[in-house]
């Protein structure tokens, strides 16, 4: 594929060395047995599983027996929250987390609230930092768990988990850390940082999807109520036949990441600096997140004067994440960026670039050129710029009409030239989704030669059918029609 991949925070490709090790555990001549079986095939598989357990534990400086296999960070987070809250419910029913956590923490918290638990959702500062003082202020006599992510998946901000962990231990509160984005990229020492529960996943560090782990402190032993039943595997915390090939891949991925911890972050930091230097030359680019307390691998930036969905759709040869929910008819903005105080418009017009093991300077330069081209194009259409035809207003032979606003997410302005009651030319400016821009462009092209009274002859439904606009986006096209209707009203007064 020609597309440049810059979405490592979403998932990473499996390292070829990891894929080779996994293959050894799949075929008849390999280690394919059930690790729970007592025959030679099972014993061989069990040995590989335990070797991988030690590799994962070494990455976070834990003892191997503290690692419990799961299907990924989502399950690990669920087991940590539901397991600890329900097990310790008689000791207290209050939990503390942050508004910027991953949904696999926030959604379990919402469910626990339905079960009678109380949850305090901390608001980070404008740079995305959750300060230890804020955590301390939220603790109560009934608090049993604090759950915070080490590195935010959207903005890359690094929390001071050591300070928060020590605070929790002083107050006798369990501390859970979601380390999906930090494992293999930052040093983690669960004992030194006073972490009781820690969630990991393989696919964020060049291992396979579908396998993760939960570190569970053993001394003193933490009690958890299991989510899955049937066989009592993994110390009774997670029943089910272990996927030897995935676990082996996870283990090797952790070992490789540990080897590169001393050099890889420095290389990635240089790439991110190169990326930011190139993008910042556009002007009107706002970085999201703390300038210093951040991981090297993530750059999140908002672009003023453009609409997020249109920006992302124009980056066809660049794989990045956006702050706009492009598949949503409601265009919900990133809740993380909104929690930082960003407006809906800026949150939606944000891009998350995440770099990784296979990123190159060439990838970065391609991203700079692609984003610069698309932002420049969209800004030429947006309300941030103007042309002579706009400054002339409703001059003789020209009508300007508009509808919508940037605040509502869609704005369209048409300038129609006319002579003898017929349209001689039509121009437009627009701020909105790709379908809005496409509809405005199509109409501007097809208005020439029409009578002024006939500029609305083609309705939005017909335009939508011609352009393949999804039915849920039809409401946005009504603003295009309203702008033409404004032109028509002005024309009726001018002729």
Describe the structure.
The protein is α/β, with parallel strands linked by helices and 495 residues long. The chain has helices spanning 16-23, 40-59, 73-87, 103-114, 132-138, 161-170, 244-260, 264-280, 308-313, 335-339, 344-348, 361-381, 388-391, 434-446, 460-467, 474-494, and strands at 4-5, 67-70, 94-98, 118-122, 143-149, 174-178, 197-201, 212-216, 285-287, 298-303, 318-319, 321-322, 350-354, 398-405, 410-419, 422-431. It has three domains: 11-260, Type I PLP-dependent aspartate aminotransferase-like (Major domain) (Aspartate Aminotransferase, domain 2), CATH 3.40.640; 264-381, Alpha-Beta Complex (Aspartate Aminotransferase, domain 1); 388-494, Sufe protein. Chain: A. Helix content is 38%, strand content 17%. Strands 2-8-7-6-5-3-4 form a seven-stranded mixed beta sheet, sandwiched between helices. Helix 8 (264-280) runs parallel beside helix 12. The chain starts with a strand and ends with a helix.
Relevant terms:
Sufe protein. Chain: A; 495 residues; 3 domains; Aspartate Aminotransferase, domain 2; 7-stranded mixed beta sheet
The rounded distance between the terminal residues' Cα atoms is 55 Å
* Cross-sheet strand order for the largest sheet: 2-8-7-6-5-3-4
- List low-pLDDT spans: 325-330
Helix content: 25-40%
- The CATH class assignment of the largest domain is Alpha Beta
The tally of helices reads 16
Q: Any idea of the CATH topology of the largest domain? A: Aspartate Aminotransferase, domain 2
CATH superfamily of the largest domain: Type I PLP-dependent aspartate aminotransferase-like (Major domain)
What form results from the Cα inertia axes?
elongated
Mean pLDDT, nearest integer?
A: 92
CATH architecture heading of the largest domain: 3-Layer(aba) Sandwich
- What kind of sheet is the major sheet? 7 strands, mixed
Number of strands: 16
Gyration radius (Cα, Å) is: 27 Å
Helical/strand content category:
alpha/beta
Number of discrete domains:
3
Percent of sequence in beta strands? 15-25%
